[in-house]
Amino acid sequence: MPRATSGMRANAGTKGVPRADREGQIVRAACEVFGTEGFAGTSVAAVAARAGISKPLVYQYFGSKEGLFSACLHHGGAILAEEMERIASGDTVGLERGLLTLNGIFRILEPQPWLWRLFFDPSAPREGEIAAAIKEHTERITTLAVEGVGELLRLQGDDDPLDIDAMTRVWMSIFDALVTWWLDHPDESPAAMTERCLRLFTAVLSADVPVLQP
Amino acid sequence: MPRATSGMRANAGTKGVPRADREGQIVRAACEVFGTEGFAGTSVAAVAARAGISKPLVYQYFGSKEGLFSACLHHGGAILAEEMERIASGDTVGLERGLLTLNGIFRILEPQPWLWRLFFDPSAPREGEIAAAIKEHTERITTLAVEGVGELLRLQGDDDPLDIDAMTRVWMSIFDALVTWWLDHPDESPAAMTERCLRLFTAVLSADVPVLQP
DNA sequence: GCAATATGACCTTTGGGTAAGTTACCTCAG
DNA sequence: CTGAGGTAACTTACCCAAAGGTCATATTGC
Question: Which CATH number fits domain B72-205: 1.10.287, 3.30.930, 2.40.30, 1.10.357?
């Protein structure tokens, strides 16, 4: 349902903000509220208030709460995927590529950290349009991460697809943890943050491999 | 508010299930629903149905939806913290202790994986009794994690408190990712899960340390 | 006049919470 | 032993505020 200005002369006969612009405002506001309060915890009225407009306009443009959430998923998913694809198109590999991606995602997520949470919301509907959108975008993002992580694991002689899948999830959640930590320590400069990450990586990497005996 | 049978002769004059037992049943059902649907996504009626009783009984025993959720947090928090403390009291250190902890938690979580999610619910109230309960139990767990992580980093010659703090967050988030992944792959046994983790740790640890040049 | 933007007022459902009553078992006076 | 009264366990039926969703209407540029 959510459509940008289409067929006709763009922006013909209008009093207020053109639909495409307004849709953008609403979606950005909605991403913030959905991402911080969760799908079930968010009311459409709250989103409207946040966007500075009235509830019916949201329904006029997005049809339903689910339609609005779906638009948010497409908005956030595109932003994240494009950045990751940009970095993936470079020629770095292994953990170095990991650090580069981390850096890029940091920059993208810094002003809007809640985007990430849209895709991991337990209170989101698990069937229908929303489930499909979540699946579509997590798969798109995950595909890129899987590519990098798979490369790394294969380099170490592990090519179990489930291992790669799990490791990808771990890798992605590390992003979340580091960004969240950063937001809680705003006096930290990006450079210092990157250094810190490298230090932590180094420390963990130089630890001894444990032996198993449960 | 939730109290076991107290003062009087235990279980005097009763028709149905004794209160303490019933409370246990309700809390277990509630943990499952809250943990899978999120706080905002859960209705008390749904919990009552799951527990096989009526809604007012829930209110009679727990006072409110928040009271019920709070009881769940204490129930789950105690279970998790006790297991982690048990392992912390052993004498393993570094990554080995990390793996042991993972193994223990996986075993605990196998029949009730949703317990973990209670403490990372974005739709849960962020003030009042619930916020306090979440804080109390996550801090109890975090303290243990900080202990283990700090030990690991100091072994590698890093004793920056901020590094330890950040690394703890990363570690717990790794933990979270692995548990979440597991929730999506329920046919995996705890033992298999632990093996997988060991395999992943090993692979990553034997990778080369990256060089910085952004 | 027509089309696009925008809203106040309204309808309907959901869900947290409650009032009041019912059932079964216990105790104890007669 | 028995039945009246007490109490814990439990439910049906309800209230009401909040939230999803809709409608009629206002405003303005072409």
Answer: 1.10.357
